[in-house]
Amino acid sequence: MKKSKKNGESKQRKPPIKPIEEFEKRYLPMIDILDEGSYFLDYEFGNNIGIEPNRVWTLVSGDNGNDVIMAGRHHVNRLAYVITEVPWETGNEQFIIENNK
Fold first, then answer.
1. How many domains, the chain?
2. How many whole angstroms separate alpha carbon 45 and alpha carbon 83?
3. Does residue 32 surpass a pLDDT of 90?
């Protein structure tokens, strides 16, 4: 993460959260044919034997009512995992799924 200085203080900036359509187009999530074409895998997903860690993403419940897909394996607020054909680069990538309520 980049740090910005304001009034002599060092402050961590959060990476931007991009729309889910950009995630789908760029990283190509692999479809789970056993779950009617969904790309979300059960949160009890195992150790990903044979799958590179930088192709694993986590769907988490966000604070503002929207869900977020985050690069890597996360445990807090975890809903599901996603495996992609294209690996993430930095581990800071995040994509929002806007819930229309």
1. 1
2. 11
3. no
